[in-house]
Amino acid sequence: MSESIKPHGGKLVNRITKADPSGLFSITITEDLANDVENIADGIFSPLEGFLGKKRL
């Protein structure tokens, strides 16, 4: 029997892509923002799938 804690929202979200990033542009961001991006990609902020856009604020 699994005794692991269920993720918030009931599901884990994995946003890591296997696409080749060589054709994408890059931007400079703060270390805090880079940590947030990595946490979203790893599913640590599940069930969030990304940042809120202007339409959702």
TrEMBL record:
Transmembrane segments: none annotated. Residues 5-55 form the ATP-sulfurylase PUA-like domain. This is ATP-sulfurylase PUA-like domain-containing protein. It comes from Candidatus Nitrosarchaeum limnium BG20.
